[in-house]
Amino acid sequence: MKSRIHLSEHFTYSKLLRFTLPTIGTNIFLSLYIVVDGYFVANFVGKTEFAAINLILPALNILGTIGYMFGVGGSALIAKRLGEKNQKEANSLFSLLVLFCACLGVLMSVPGFIFMRQITTMFGAEGKLLEYCVLYGRIFILALPAWILEYEFQLFFVTAEKPGLGLAVTVCAGLCNIALDALFIIGFKWGLAGAAAASALSQVVGGVFPIFYFIRKNSSLLKLVKPVWDGRALVKCCTNGTSEFMGEVAFSLVGIAYNVQLLKYAGEDGIVIYGILMYVSMIFSAVLVGFSNGAGPVFSYHYGAQNYGELRNLRKRSLILIGLTSVAMFAFSEVLARPFSAAFLHGAEQLLPDTVHAFRIFSVAYLFAGMAVFSSAFFTALNNGQVSAMISFLRTFVFDLGAVLLLPFILGVDGIWYAIVFAELMAAIVGGLFMFAFRKKYHY
Fold first, then answer.
1. Does the pTM of the predicted model rise above 0.70?
2. pLDDT (tens digit, 9 = 90+) per residue, 26-48?
3. Of 23, 96, 259, 387, which residue is most buried, by most CB within 10 angstroms?
4. 5 in a structural domain
5. What CA–CA distance (Å, rounded) separates 352 from 360?
6. How many structural domains does the chain have?
């Protein structure tokens, strides 16, 4: 059995992959919540219900990824304090972030439930599509506190040198989601409500179990203790994780813009096609984000310890791995375009040619997405939230949003699929330029 890898070690390619693989797997299983719901709904409920999930999820994702923001930003600060040998401060901050996010989730779930209809109406939904969005959203949002904690804990498991345990928790929650989807949708015939309930209950599994682990004596670097209020540290965690949060929020807002444009240019069928593309994108993005977040605490630790030689080693190896992964994703996407599309088009096979066509265009973006994601996470790990936020802002709010609003005027529906290719290419260029510009400041 492989020994546990410590943040302070020298990282080879093998060791870097072993350390980040659990986080990659964790992110993939987090994405599978949505993919599994979509598969069961598309094949056992109906096309309109499937479109409803894809229409409302971007809004729900904005709320859930608050935990991602505090997890990423908090992990960087906690790992830095661990590198500085401040164990007591690291535990206190860790505990404060968990309590704060749990309370924040409860506070946000109430208005979210009440105003779900108004939120969905703004997206252009009406009739049955509107009612299905409200039904799914209101059930799903009841588990918001647990969802936020699940996002947060997956980052903290890495900082605690327990990425494998984080993966195990997420796998259990994911398997719970699959089992409950089958039970509620196929067995009990609860339809869309069953899909929402299955996701909500599985998030409770993923968000609550880590509390019991960290509150007891454990072999990780972190433990839940009585927190001490530190407003300055909370603000630092928030600002440091803003870039990743902005990236997720922008991704969701761009998703909403895509849906609005597709309703205009292709109707409900366009929403269905985009939903299928997003399922692949979620899984592939989970790999890139998982690697970047998994390596992040290692960068933070060696930056805090001023081990600049190891910092250069990590950057070089990470860029090579990211580049190879991006090429592999493009190839897989091209090969799997038809079979994956067919798996979600039961009863709507007439959409297969258009879906495969969109897939072929969309997959080119994966060649550039790795650099765009990693460069932003890299600066977060170095506690430079401003640069990280700038990369995320340009990638989403400027390049992606601008392209999806303008290109359809020139290319019609195809302009919507080309928008993501343009955005990822430009973001990769910007991220590379920032990494080159700051190499002397951070000694990498």
1. yes
2. 788 778 777 888 899 989 998 89
3. 23
4. no
5. 12
6. 1
